[in-house]
Design a protein that fits this description.
It contains 13 helices and 27 strands. It is α/β, with parallel strands linked by helices and about 575 residues long. It has 4 domains: about 200 residues, HUPs (Rossmann fold, 3-Layer(aba) Sandwich), CATH 3.40.50; about 110 residues, Glutamyl-tRNA Synthetase, domain 3, CATH 3.90.800; about 120 residues, Ribosomal Protein L25, Chain P (Beta Barrel); about 90 residues, Ribosomal Protein L25, Chain P (Beta Barrel). The radius of gyration is 31 Å and the shape is elongated. The chain binds adenosine-5'-triphosphate (ATP) and magnesium ion (MG). Adenosine-5'-triphosphate binds next to α2, β8 and α9.
Length: about 575
Protein backbone atom coordinates (compact mmCIF):
# COMPACT_ATOMS: atom_id res chain seq x y z
CA UNK A 1 0.00 0.00 0.00
CA UNK A 2 1.45 3.41 -0.86
CA UNK A 3 2.14 5.77 1.99
CA UNK A 4 0.39 9.06 2.27
CA UNK A 5 2.58 11.40 4.17
CA UNK A 6 2.02 14.97 3.14
CA UNK A 7 1.10 17.58 5.68
CA UNK A 8 -1.39 19.79 4.01
CA UNK A 9 -2.55 22.89 5.81
CA UNK A 10 -4.28 24.58 2.87
CA UNK A 11 -8.03 25.05 3.13
CA UNK A 12 -9.59 21.72 2.33
CA UNK A 13 -9.91 20.93 -1.35
CA UNK A 14 -10.34 17.46 -2.76
CA UNK A 15 -12.20 15.61 -5.49
CA UNK A 16 -15.38 15.35 -3.41
CA UNK A 17 -15.42 19.04 -2.60
CA UNK A 18 -14.79 19.75 -6.28
CA UNK A 19 -17.79 17.65 -7.31
CA UNK A 20 -19.96 19.46 -4.79
CA UNK A 21 -18.74 22.88 -5.86
CA UNK A 22 -19.66 22.00 -9.46
CA UNK A 23 -23.09 20.78 -8.35
CA UNK A 24 -23.74 24.01 -6.50
CA UNK A 25 -22.63 26.02 -9.52
CA UNK A 26 -25.06 24.06 -11.70
CA UNK A 27 -27.76 24.56 -9.07
CA UNK A 28 -28.19 20.82 -8.79
CA UNK A 29 -30.41 19.95 -5.76
CA UNK A 30 -31.38 23.66 -5.74
CA UNK A 31 -27.86 24.34 -4.57
CA UNK A 32 -28.44 22.47 -1.30
CA UNK A 33 -25.95 20.17 0.40
CA UNK A 34 -27.19 17.46 2.75
CA UNK A 35 -24.81 14.75 3.96
CA UNK A 36 -24.99 12.10 6.65
CA UNK A 37 -22.80 10.02 8.89
CA UNK A 38 -24.35 6.54 8.96
CA UNK A 39 -22.69 4.30 11.58
CA UNK A 40 -23.95 0.84 12.30
CA UNK A 41 -24.31 0.54 16.11
CA UNK A 42 -22.33 -2.69 16.28
CA UNK A 43 -19.16 -1.36 17.88
CA UNK A 44 -17.42 1.79 19.08
CA UNK A 45 -16.26 4.46 16.66
CA UNK A 46 -12.62 4.47 15.62
CA UNK A 47 -10.27 7.00 14.06
CA UNK A 48 -11.44 6.00 10.58
CA UNK A 49 -14.95 7.01 11.52
CA UNK A 50 -13.60 10.36 12.68
CA UNK A 51 -12.37 10.91 9.14
CA UNK A 52 -15.85 10.20 7.80
CA UNK A 53 -17.50 12.46 10.40
CA UNK A 54 -15.10 15.34 9.70
CA UNK A 55 -15.62 14.92 5.97
CA UNK A 56 -19.40 14.74 6.02
CA UNK A 57 -20.03 17.44 8.57
CA UNK A 58 -17.17 19.57 7.25
CA UNK A 59 -18.60 19.56 3.74
CA UNK A 60 -22.06 20.40 5.06
CA UNK A 61 -20.75 23.26 7.19
CA UNK A 62 -18.64 24.73 4.37
CA UNK A 63 -21.70 24.86 2.12
CA UNK A 64 -24.37 26.05 4.55
CA UNK A 65 -25.72 22.55 4.42
CA UNK A 66 -26.71 20.02 7.03
CA UNK A 67 -25.32 16.68 8.13
CA UNK A 68 -27.52 13.99 9.66
CA UNK A 69 -26.51 11.37 12.16
CA UNK A 70 -28.19 8.15 11.15
CA UNK A 71 -27.91 4.82 12.89
CA UNK A 72 -27.89 2.15 10.25
CA UNK A 73 -29.55 -0.40 12.53
CA UNK A 74 -30.74 -3.18 10.26
CA UNK A 75 -28.83 -6.13 11.71
CA UNK A 76 -30.19 -6.54 15.26
CA UNK A 77 -28.10 -9.62 16.07
CA UNK A 78 -24.95 -7.49 16.34
CA UNK A 79 -26.34 -4.15 17.44
CA UNK A 80 -26.96 -2.70 20.86
CA UNK A 81 -27.99 0.50 22.62
CA UNK A 82 -24.61 0.55 24.39
CA UNK A 83 -23.11 1.23 20.96
CA UNK A 84 -25.74 3.85 20.12
CA UNK A 85 -24.91 5.77 23.28
CA UNK A 86 -21.14 5.51 22.85
CA UNK A 87 -21.39 6.67 19.23
CA UNK A 88 -23.47 9.69 20.21
CA UNK A 89 -21.01 10.71 22.89
CA UNK A 90 -18.01 10.19 20.59
CA UNK A 91 -19.53 12.29 17.81
CA UNK A 92 -20.36 15.01 20.33
CA UNK A 93 -16.82 14.84 21.70
CA UNK A 94 -15.39 15.39 18.23
CA UNK A 95 -17.37 18.62 18.24
CA UNK A 96 -20.19 17.86 15.81
CA UNK A 97 -23.75 18.74 16.53
CA UNK A 98 -26.52 16.89 14.71
CA UNK A 99 -29.14 19.24 16.17
CA UNK A 100 -32.54 17.62 15.79
CA UNK A 101 -31.38 15.43 12.93
CA UNK A 102 -30.78 12.15 14.71
CA UNK A 103 -32.30 9.31 12.66
CA UNK A 104 -32.51 5.56 12.70
CA UNK A 105 -33.00 3.32 9.70
CA UNK A 106 -35.35 1.33 11.94
CA UNK A 107 -37.68 4.35 11.92
CA UNK A 108 -38.12 3.71 8.20
CA UNK A 109 -38.88 -0.01 8.45
CA UNK A 110 -42.53 0.42 7.45
CA UNK A 111 -41.65 2.77 4.59
CA UNK A 112 -38.93 0.41 3.39
CA UNK A 113 -41.38 -2.46 3.47
CA UNK A 114 -43.78 -0.48 1.31
CA UNK A 115 -40.98 0.28 -1.14
CA UNK A 116 -40.28 -3.44 -1.39
CA UNK A 117 -43.97 -4.07 -2.11
CA UNK A 118 -43.73 -1.46 -4.85
CA UNK A 119 -40.79 -3.29 -6.44
CA UNK A 120 -42.71 -6.56 -6.34
CA UNK A 121 -45.69 -4.89 -8.00
CA UNK A 122 -43.40 -3.70 -10.79
CA UNK A 123 -42.20 -7.25 -11.29
CA UNK A 124 -38.75 -6.20 -10.05
CA UNK A 125 -38.50 -8.33 -6.93
CA UNK A 126 -39.42 -11.90 -6.04
CA UNK A 127 -39.46 -14.25 -3.11
CA UNK A 128 -36.86 -16.96 -3.56
CA UNK A 129 -36.89 -20.25 -1.68
CA UNK A 130 -33.35 -21.30 -2.53
CA UNK A 131 -31.17 -21.89 0.51
CA UNK A 132 -28.28 -19.52 1.21
CA UNK A 133 -25.92 -22.20 -0.06
CA UNK A 134 -27.89 -22.64 -3.30
CA UNK A 135 -28.08 -18.90 -3.86
CA UNK A 136 -24.33 -18.75 -3.60
CA UNK A 137 -23.94 -21.58 -6.12
CA UNK A 138 -26.39 -19.99 -8.55
CA UNK A 139 -24.64 -16.65 -8.39
CA UNK A 140 -21.75 -17.69 -10.63
CA UNK A 141 -18.32 -16.08 -10.47
CA UNK A 142 -16.48 -13.16 -11.98
CA UNK A 143 -15.76 -15.27 -15.06
CA UNK A 144 -19.00 -17.26 -15.22
CA UNK A 145 -22.53 -15.90 -15.45
CA UNK A 146 -25.02 -16.88 -12.76
CA UNK A 147 -28.03 -19.16 -13.14
CA UNK A 148 -31.58 -17.94 -12.69
CA UNK A 149 -33.46 -19.12 -9.64
CA UNK A 150 -36.36 -21.46 -10.37
CA UNK A 151 -38.51 -19.07 -8.28
CA UNK A 152 -37.62 -16.05 -10.38
CA UNK A 153 -40.75 -16.09 -12.45
CA UNK A 154 -43.33 -16.26 -9.71
CA UNK A 155 -46.31 -14.03 -10.39
CA UNK A 156 -46.65 -10.63 -8.78
CA UNK A 157 -49.66 -11.90 -6.78
CA UNK A 158 -47.78 -14.89 -5.46
CA UNK A 159 -44.80 -12.71 -4.51
CA UNK A 160 -47.00 -10.19 -2.74
CA UNK A 161 -48.67 -12.95 -0.79
CA UNK A 162 -45.38 -14.65 0.10
CA UNK A 163 -43.71 -11.39 1.13
CA UNK A 164 -46.66 -10.50 3.35
CA UNK A 165 -46.41 -13.92 4.96
CA UNK A 166 -42.67 -13.48 5.42
CA UNK A 167 -43.45 -10.37 7.41
CA UNK A 168 -46.20 -12.14 9.34
CA UNK A 169 -43.74 -14.75 10.56
CA UNK A 170 -45.17 -17.67 8.62
CA UNK A 171 -41.80 -18.97 7.49
CA UNK A 172 -38.72 -20.26 9.23
CA UNK A 173 -35.59 -18.10 9.43
CA UNK A 174 -33.56 -18.58 6.29
CA UNK A 175 -36.26 -20.46 4.39
CA UNK A 176 -36.72 -17.67 1.83
CA UNK A 177 -35.57 -14.16 0.94
CA UNK A 178 -36.87 -11.31 -1.13
CA UNK A 179 -34.55 -10.68 -4.09
CA UNK A 180 -34.31 -7.95 -6.67
CA UNK A 181 -34.88 -9.19 -10.20
CA UNK A 182 -32.04 -7.63 -12.16
CA UNK A 183 -29.62 -9.66 -14.23
CA UNK A 184 -28.01 -12.99 -13.38
CA UNK A 185 -25.38 -12.50 -16.05
CA UNK A 186 -24.32 -9.00 -15.05
CA UNK A 187 -20.54 -8.62 -14.85
CA UNK A 188 -21.19 -6.96 -11.49
CA UNK A 189 -21.98 -9.72 -8.98
CA UNK A 190 -23.96 -7.27 -6.85
CA UNK A 191 -26.47 -7.00 -9.68
CA UNK A 192 -27.16 -10.74 -9.87
CA UNK A 193 -30.52 -10.63 -8.13
CA UNK A 194 -29.24 -9.45 -4.72
CA UNK A 195 -31.20 -10.21 -1.55
CA UNK A 196 -33.28 -7.29 -0.27
CA UNK A 197 -34.94 -8.83 2.80
CA UNK A 198 -34.23 -11.81 4.98
CA UNK A 199 -36.08 -13.49 7.83
CA UNK A 200 -34.46 -13.16 11.24
CA UNK A 201 -36.27 -13.74 14.48
CA UNK A 202 -34.07 -11.46 16.55
CA UNK A 203 -35.29 -8.76 18.91
CA UNK A 204 -34.29 -5.32 17.73
CA UNK A 205 -32.97 -2.82 20.28
CA UNK A 206 -35.56 -0.29 19.12
CA UNK A 207 -38.40 -2.11 17.40
CA UNK A 208 -38.42 -5.12 19.72
CA UNK A 209 -40.22 -8.09 18.17
CA UNK A 210 -42.32 -6.07 15.77
CA UNK A 211 -40.35 -7.31 12.79
CA UNK A 212 -39.01 -10.70 11.86
CA UNK A 213 -37.80 -9.59 8.44
CA UNK A 214 -34.98 -7.08 8.11
CA UNK A 215 -33.82 -5.18 5.02
CA UNK A 216 -30.32 -5.67 3.65
CA UNK A 217 -27.81 -2.82 3.65
CA UNK A 218 -27.99 -2.25 -0.11
CA UNK A 219 -31.74 -1.87 -0.01
CA UNK A 220 -32.09 0.22 3.14
CA UNK A 221 -29.11 2.52 2.67
CA UNK A 222 -30.03 4.18 -0.61
CA UNK A 223 -33.65 4.51 0.45
CA UNK A 224 -32.79 5.97 3.85
CA UNK A 225 -30.57 8.48 2.06
CA UNK A 226 -33.43 9.30 -0.26
CA UNK A 227 -36.02 9.61 2.52
CA UNK A 228 -33.76 12.10 4.31
CA UNK A 229 -33.14 14.14 1.18
CA UNK A 230 -29.41 13.45 1.22
CA UNK A 231 -27.73 15.10 -1.78
CA UNK A 232 -24.28 13.50 -1.56
CA UNK A 233 -23.93 10.05 -0.05
CA UNK A 234 -20.27 9.74 0.78
CA UNK A 235 -18.92 6.29 1.58
CA UNK A 236 -15.73 4.26 1.44
CA UNK A 237 -14.28 2.63 -1.68
CA UNK A 238 -15.43 -0.88 -0.93
CA UNK A 239 -18.94 0.25 -1.91
CA UNK A 240 -17.91 1.27 -5.41
CA UNK A 241 -19.34 -1.94 -6.87
CA UNK A 242 -22.57 -1.42 -4.94
CA UNK A 243 -23.21 1.93 -6.60
CA UNK A 244 -25.02 0.45 -9.65
CA UNK A 245 -27.38 -1.30 -7.23
CA UNK A 246 -27.82 1.88 -5.20
CA UNK A 247 -28.83 3.67 -8.40
CA UNK A 248 -30.94 0.79 -9.75
CA UNK A 249 -33.17 0.69 -6.66
CA UNK A 250 -33.72 4.45 -6.64
CA UNK A 251 -34.37 4.51 -10.40
CA UNK A 252 -36.85 1.65 -10.28
CA UNK A 253 -38.74 3.22 -7.41
CA UNK A 254 -38.87 6.65 -9.03
CA UNK A 255 -38.16 8.39 -5.74
CA UNK A 256 -38.13 12.16 -5.49
CA UNK A 257 -34.61 12.39 -4.17
CA UNK A 258 -31.83 10.41 -5.80
CA UNK A 259 -28.61 11.08 -3.90
CA UNK A 260 -25.25 10.76 -5.60
CA UNK A 261 -23.01 8.14 -4.06
CA UNK A 262 -19.35 9.15 -3.97
CA UNK A 263 -16.63 6.83 -2.70
CA UNK A 264 -13.35 7.79 -1.06
CA UNK A 265 -10.41 5.82 0.32
CA UNK A 266 -10.86 4.70 3.89
CA UNK A 267 -8.27 5.66 6.45
CA UNK A 268 -5.63 3.06 7.26
CA UNK A 269 -3.24 3.85 10.06
CA UNK A 270 0.07 2.12 10.67
CA UNK A 271 0.61 -0.09 13.74
CA UNK A 272 -3.09 -0.46 14.39
CA UNK A 273 -6.28 -1.87 12.89
CA UNK A 274 -9.33 0.17 11.91
CA UNK A 275 -11.98 -2.43 11.51
CA UNK A 276 -14.77 -2.87 13.97
CA UNK A 277 -14.79 -6.60 13.45
CA UNK A 278 -11.15 -6.79 14.54
CA UNK A 279 -11.59 -4.33 17.38
CA UNK A 280 -14.56 -6.32 18.73
CA UNK A 281 -12.34 -9.37 18.71
CA UNK A 282 -9.60 -7.63 20.71
CA UNK A 283 -12.17 -6.56 23.31
CA UNK A 284 -14.05 -9.84 23.53
CA UNK A 285 -10.93 -12.01 23.71
CA UNK A 286 -9.44 -9.80 26.41
CA UNK A 287 -6.37 -8.61 24.45
CA UNK A 288 -7.16 -5.09 25.65
CA UNK A 289 -9.04 -3.77 28.65
CA UNK A 290 -12.24 -2.78 26.92
CA UNK A 291 -13.22 -0.45 24.11
CA UNK A 292 -11.74 2.56 25.89
CA UNK A 293 -8.37 0.97 26.58
CA UNK A 294 -5.96 3.85 25.84
CA UNK A 295 -4.10 1.65 23.33
CA UNK A 296 -7.22 1.22 21.22
CA UNK A 297 -7.70 3.36 18.07
CA UNK A 298 -11.29 3.93 19.16
CA UNK A 299 -12.35 7.50 19.87
CA UNK A 300 -13.09 6.51 23.46
CA UNK A 301 -9.62 4.96 23.69
CA UNK A 302 -7.70 7.94 22.35
CA UNK A 303 -9.84 10.31 24.42
CA UNK A 304 -8.90 8.42 27.56
CA UNK A 305 -5.32 8.41 26.35
CA UNK A 306 -5.41 12.22 26.34
CA UNK A 307 -6.05 13.18 22.71
CA UNK A 308 -8.04 16.37 22.19
CA UNK A 309 -10.89 16.69 19.70
CA UNK A 310 -9.00 19.60 18.09
CA UNK A 311 -5.99 17.42 17.40
CA UNK A 312 -8.22 14.75 15.87
CA UNK A 313 -9.92 17.27 13.62
CA UNK A 314 -6.59 18.74 12.53
CA UNK A 315 -5.34 15.26 11.78
CA UNK A 316 -8.39 14.53 9.62
CA UNK A 317 -7.94 17.81 7.74
CA UNK A 318 -4.29 17.09 7.13
CA UNK A 319 -4.65 13.56 5.79
CA UNK A 320 -7.15 14.85 3.25
CA UNK A 321 -9.42 12.78 1.06
CA UNK A 322 -8.24 10.58 -1.78
CA UNK A 323 -9.59 8.04 -4.20
CA UNK A 324 -6.83 5.51 -3.74
CA UNK A 325 -6.17 3.45 -0.62
CA UNK A 326 -3.10 4.41 1.34
CA UNK A 327 -1.58 3.99 4.76
CA UNK A 328 -1.13 7.01 7.02
CA UNK A 329 1.82 6.90 9.41
CA UNK A 330 0.67 6.89 13.02
CA UNK A 331 3.49 9.37 13.68
CA UNK A 332 1.33 11.99 11.97
CA UNK A 333 -1.44 11.41 14.48
CA UNK A 334 1.09 11.82 17.28
CA UNK A 335 2.47 14.96 15.67
CA UNK A 336 -0.98 16.54 15.82
CA UNK A 337 -1.56 15.89 19.49
CA UNK A 338 1.94 17.07 20.36
CA UNK A 339 1.39 20.27 18.43
CA UNK A 340 -1.88 20.92 20.25
CA UNK A 341 -0.69 20.05 23.75
CA UNK A 342 2.54 21.99 23.33
CA UNK A 343 0.41 25.13 23.27
CA UNK A 344 -1.95 24.33 26.07
CA UNK A 345 -0.64 21.69 28.45
CA UNK A 346 0.91 23.10 31.62
CA UNK A 347 4.44 21.88 32.36
CA UNK A 348 5.03 20.04 35.59
CA UNK A 349 7.76 17.83 36.99
CA UNK A 350 7.31 14.17 37.78
CA UNK A 351 9.80 11.38 38.21
CA UNK A 352 8.83 8.00 36.77
CA UNK A 353 11.61 5.83 38.22
CA UNK A 354 12.79 7.65 41.33
CA UNK A 355 16.39 7.73 42.56
CA UNK A 356 16.95 9.44 45.90
CA UNK A 357 19.34 12.39 46.00
CA UNK A 358 20.55 13.94 49.25
CA UNK A 359 21.98 17.44 49.04
CA UNK A 360 24.56 17.20 51.83
CA UNK A 361 25.17 20.94 52.20
CA UNK A 362 21.49 21.96 52.13
CA UNK A 363 19.94 22.66 55.57
CA UNK A 364 17.63 19.95 56.84
CA UNK A 365 14.91 22.23 58.14
CA UNK A 366 14.54 24.52 55.13
CA UNK A 367 12.04 24.33 52.30
CA UNK A 368 12.30 26.86 49.49
CA UNK A 369 9.43 27.64 47.17
CA UNK A 370 10.99 28.14 43.73
CA UNK A 371 9.35 29.76 40.72
CA UNK A 372 8.60 27.52 37.77
CA UNK A 373 7.09 28.48 34.40
CA UNK A 374 3.78 26.84 33.58
CA UNK A 375 4.38 27.01 29.86
CA UNK A 376 7.37 28.62 28.18
CA UNK A 377 5.27 28.69 24.96
CA UNK A 378 2.68 30.86 26.65
CA UNK A 379 3.84 33.31 29.33
CA UNK A 380 0.17 34.08 30.02
CA UNK A 381 -0.09 30.73 31.75
CA UNK A 382 1.95 32.18 34.59
CA UNK A 383 4.22 30.61 37.17
CA UNK A 384 3.82 28.24 40.09
CA UNK A 385 5.83 27.44 43.19
CA UNK A 386 7.76 24.20 43.44
CA UNK A 387 9.17 23.14 46.83
CA UNK A 388 12.88 22.36 47.05
CA UNK A 389 14.43 20.61 50.03
CA UNK A 390 17.41 18.55 51.10
CA UNK A 391 16.08 15.20 49.87
CA UNK A 392 14.98 14.94 46.25
CA UNK A 393 14.17 12.38 43.61
CA UNK A 394 15.59 12.38 40.12
CA UNK A 395 15.13 9.88 37.30
CA UNK A 396 17.22 6.72 37.67
CA UNK A 397 18.27 6.95 34.03
CA UNK A 398 19.64 10.46 34.59
CA UNK A 399 22.55 9.03 36.56
CA UNK A 400 25.34 6.74 35.36
CA UNK A 401 28.10 5.67 37.64
CA UNK A 402 30.22 4.91 34.63
CA UNK A 403 28.96 7.32 31.97
CA UNK A 404 29.45 6.43 28.31
CA UNK A 405 30.89 9.04 25.96
CA UNK A 406 27.79 10.97 25.03
CA UNK A 407 26.10 10.76 28.38
CA UNK A 408 26.08 14.32 29.78
CA UNK A 409 23.76 13.86 32.71
CA UNK A 410 24.71 13.19 36.31
CA UNK A 411 27.77 11.07 37.13
CA UNK A 412 30.24 10.96 40.00
CA UNK A 413 32.07 14.30 40.25
CA UNK A 414 29.90 15.88 37.56
CA UNK A 415 27.80 19.05 37.86
CA UNK A 416 24.32 19.42 36.31
CA UNK A 417 21.42 21.83 36.62
CA UNK A 418 18.20 21.00 38.41
CA UNK A 419 15.44 22.73 36.49
CA UNK A 420 14.37 26.01 38.17
CA UNK A 421 16.57 25.16 41.18
CA UNK A 422 20.34 24.89 41.53
CA UNK A 423 23.48 23.37 40.07
CA UNK A 424 24.35 20.20 41.92
CA UNK A 425 27.48 18.04 41.86
CA UNK A 426 27.50 14.33 42.64
CA UNK A 427 29.88 13.54 45.49
CA UNK A 428 28.83 10.06 46.59
CA UNK A 429 27.03 6.93 45.51
CA UNK A 430 25.28 4.48 47.85
CA UNK A 431 24.63 0.98 46.58
CA UNK A 432 22.62 -1.97 47.75
CA UNK A 433 25.19 -4.33 49.26
CA UNK A 434 23.51 -7.42 47.88
CA UNK A 435 22.54 -6.34 44.37
CA UNK A 436 25.00 -3.57 43.66
CA UNK A 437 22.11 -1.39 42.53
CA UNK A 438 22.53 2.37 43.05
CA UNK A 439 19.97 3.37 45.66
CA UNK A 440 20.99 6.85 46.74
CA UNK A 441 23.20 9.70 45.60
CA UNK A 442 24.92 12.34 47.68
CA UNK A 443 25.35 15.75 46.08
CA UNK A 444 26.30 19.28 47.00
CA UNK A 445 24.57 22.35 45.65
CA UNK A 446 25.92 25.78 44.80
CA UNK A 447 23.71 28.39 46.55
CA UNK A 448 24.86 31.02 44.01
CA UNK A 449 23.04 29.18 41.19
CA UNK A 450 19.54 29.71 42.51
CA UNK A 451 16.89 29.54 39.79
CA UNK A 452 19.27 27.43 37.73
CA UNK A 453 21.33 30.42 36.54
CA UNK A 454 25.06 30.23 36.34
CA UNK A 455 26.74 33.08 38.34
CA UNK A 456 30.05 33.04 36.48
CA UNK A 457 29.34 31.72 32.99
CA UNK A 458 30.06 28.22 34.21
CA UNK A 459 28.40 25.72 31.83
CA UNK A 460 26.65 22.46 32.59
CA UNK A 461 25.63 20.09 29.86
CA UNK A 462 22.38 18.80 31.29
CA UNK A 463 19.25 20.02 33.02
CA UNK A 464 17.33 17.43 35.01
CA UNK A 465 13.82 17.39 36.33
CA UNK A 466 13.30 16.48 39.97
CA UNK A 467 10.81 16.54 42.83
CA UNK A 468 11.22 17.12 46.56
CA UNK A 469 10.92 13.73 48.26
CA UNK A 470 8.88 14.87 51.24
CA UNK A 471 6.54 17.06 49.22
CA UNK A 472 5.98 14.92 46.15
CA UNK A 473 2.94 12.76 45.77
CA UNK A 474 2.75 9.18 44.63
CA UNK A 475 1.33 8.38 41.22
CA UNK A 476 0.89 5.46 38.90
CA UNK A 477 1.95 6.08 35.32
CA UNK A 478 1.00 3.94 32.35
CA UNK A 479 3.31 4.06 29.34
CA UNK A 480 1.92 2.93 26.01
CA UNK A 481 3.52 1.73 22.86
CA UNK A 482 1.94 0.72 19.55
CA UNK A 483 -0.71 -1.93 19.90
CA UNK A 484 0.89 -3.97 17.10
CA UNK A 485 4.54 -4.53 16.33
CA UNK A 486 4.23 -4.41 12.55
CA UNK A 487 3.10 -1.48 10.41
CA UNK A 488 0.28 -3.38 8.72
CA UNK A 489 -1.09 -6.08 11.00
CA UNK A 490 -3.90 -6.81 8.53
CA UNK A 491 -1.40 -7.82 5.87
CA UNK A 492 -1.60 -11.57 5.48
CA UNK A 493 2.10 -11.63 4.65
CA UNK A 494 2.79 -10.52 8.23
CA UNK A 495 0.67 -13.17 9.90
CA UNK A 496 -2.28 -15.39 9.15
CA UNK A 497 -4.05 -13.86 12.15
CA UNK A 498 -3.66 -10.16 12.89
CA UNK A 499 -3.65 -10.94 16.62
CA UNK A 500 -0.30 -12.66 16.20
CA UNK A 501 1.16 -9.20 15.57
CA UNK A 502 0.03 -7.77 18.92
CA UNK A 503 2.85 -5.98 20.69
CA UNK A 504 3.36 -7.72 24.05
CA UNK A 505 4.99 -4.56 25.40
CA UNK A 506 2.24 -2.11 24.50
CA UNK A 507 1.59 -1.30 28.15
CA UNK A 508 4.11 -0.69 30.93
CA UNK A 509 2.76 0.28 34.33
CA UNK A 510 4.99 2.19 36.75
CA UNK A 511 3.38 2.24 40.16
CA UNK A 512 5.74 4.25 42.35
CA UNK A 513 6.25 7.46 40.45
CA UNK A 514 6.56 10.78 42.27
CA UNK A 515 4.89 13.97 41.06
CA UNK A 516 5.29 17.56 42.21
CA UNK A 517 2.64 18.58 44.79
CA UNK A 518 0.78 20.93 42.45
CA UNK A 519 -0.68 17.80 40.87
CA UNK A 520 -2.56 16.82 44.02
CA UNK A 521 -6.24 16.58 43.17
CA UNK A 522 -5.66 16.89 39.41
CA UNK A 523 -9.00 16.25 37.79
CA UNK A 524 -9.64 13.25 35.56
CA UNK A 525 -8.97 14.02 31.92
CA UNK A 526 -6.62 16.94 32.64
CA UNK A 527 -3.47 17.04 30.56
CA UNK A 528 0.11 17.98 31.41
CA UNK A 529 3.55 17.95 29.97
CA UNK A 530 5.88 16.15 32.35
CA UNK A 531 9.10 17.98 31.63
CA UNK A 532 11.42 15.95 29.41
CA UNK A 533 9.08 12.93 29.46
CA UNK A 534 6.04 13.62 27.33
CA UNK A 535 2.40 14.52 27.59
CA UNK A 536 0.29 12.82 30.20
CA UNK A 537 -3.38 12.76 31.02
CA UNK A 538 -5.10 11.92 34.31
CA UNK A 539 -6.92 8.64 33.70
CA UNK A 540 -10.65 9.17 33.69
CA UNK A 541 -11.47 5.67 34.90
CA UNK A 542 -8.90 4.57 37.47
CA UNK A 543 -7.58 7.82 38.93
CA UNK A 544 -8.95 8.92 42.30
CA UNK A 545 -8.24 11.38 45.10
CA UNK A 546 -6.24 8.72 46.92
CA UNK A 547 -4.40 7.37 43.89
CA UNK A 548 -3.42 9.47 40.90
CA UNK A 549 -3.14 7.53 37.66
CA UNK A 550 -1.64 9.05 34.51
CA UNK A 551 -1.68 7.82 30.92
CA UNK A 552 1.17 8.85 28.70
CA UNK A 553 -0.51 10.36 25.67
CA UNK A 554 2.66 10.70 23.62
CA UNK A 555 6.38 11.19 24.11
CA UNK A 556 8.11 14.47 23.25
CA UNK A 557 10.11 12.94 20.44
CA UNK A 558 8.79 14.13 17.10
CA UNK A 559 9.11 11.06 14.93
CA UNK A 560 7.00 12.74 12.26
CA UNK A 561 9.55 15.52 11.70
CA UNK A 562 12.19 12.82 11.36
CA UNK A 563 10.19 10.97 8.73
CA UNK A 564 9.67 14.17 6.78
CA UNK A 565 13.33 15.10 6.94
CA UNK A 566 14.31 11.68 5.69
CA UNK A 567 11.82 11.99 2.87
CA UNK A 568 13.16 15.37 1.81
CA UNK A 569 16.68 14.00 1.78
CA UNK A 570 15.67 10.87 -0.11
P1 LIG B 1 -15.62 -1.25 9.88
O1 LIG B 1 -15.07 -1.62 8.53
O2 LIG B 1 -14.63 -0.75 10.84
O3 LIG B 1 -16.49 -2.32 10.46
P2 LIG B 1 -17.88 0.04 8.87
O4 LIG B 1 -17.71 0.68 7.57
O5 LIG B 1 -18.58 -1.26 8.91
O6 LIG B 1 -16.52 0.00 9.61
P3 LIG B 1 -19.95 1.76 9.70
O7 LIG B 1 -20.52 1.93 11.05
O8 LIG B 1 -20.79 1.13 8.64
O9 LIG B 1 -18.62 0.96 9.89
O10 LIG B 1 -19.33 3.12 9.18
C1 LIG B 1 -19.95 4.36 9.25
C2 LIG B 1 -19.31 5.26 8.25
O11 LIG B 1 -17.94 5.43 8.54
C3 LIG B 1 -19.43 4.70 6.85
O12 LIG B 1 -19.82 5.73 5.99
C4 LIG B 1 -18.05 4.21 6.56
O13 LIG B 1 -17.78 4.28 5.19
C5 LIG B 1 -17.17 5.18 7.38
N1 LIG B 1 -15.90 4.56 7.73
C6 LIG B 1 -15.72 3.38 8.37
N2 LIG B 1 -14.41 3.10 8.49
C7 LIG B 1 -13.74 4.11 7.89
C8 LIG B 1 -12.35 4.41 7.67
N3 LIG B 1 -11.38 3.58 8.08
N4 LIG B 1 -12.03 5.54 7.03
C9 LIG B 1 -12.99 6.38 6.62
N5 LIG B 1 -14.30 6.18 6.79
C10 LIG B 1 -14.69 5.05 7.42
MG1 LIG C 1 -20.47 -1.18 7.68
Amino acid sequence: MPKSNSINSEPASDFIRNIIAEDIKANKNDGKVVTRFPPEPNGYLHIGHAKSICLNSGIAAENNGICNLRFDDTNPSKEDTEYVESIKSDVRWLGFDWGNRLFYTSDYFEQLYQYAVQLIKKGKAYVCDLSAEEIRKYRGTLTEPGKESPYRNRSVEENLDLFERMRAGKFEDGSCVLRAKIDMSSPNLNMRDPALYRIRRVSHHRTGDKWCIYPMYDFSHCLSDSIEGITHSICTLEFENNRPLYDWILDELEVECHPQQIEFARLNLSYTVLSKRKLVELVEKGHVNGWDDPRMPTLSGIRRRGYTPESMRNFCDRIGVAKRDSMVDIALLEYNIREDLNKRAPRVMAVLRPLKVIIDNYPEDIVEELDALNNPEDPGMGIRKVPFSRVLYIEQEDFREDPPKKFFRLAPGREVRLRYAYFITCVGVVKDEQTGEVIELHCTYDPKTKGGDSPDGRKVKATLHWVSAAHSIEAEVRLYDHLFNVANPSDKKEAEDFKDCLNPNSLETLSSCRAEPSLAGASPGSRYQFERLGYFCVDSVDSSESKLVFNRTVTLRDTWAKIQKAQKKG
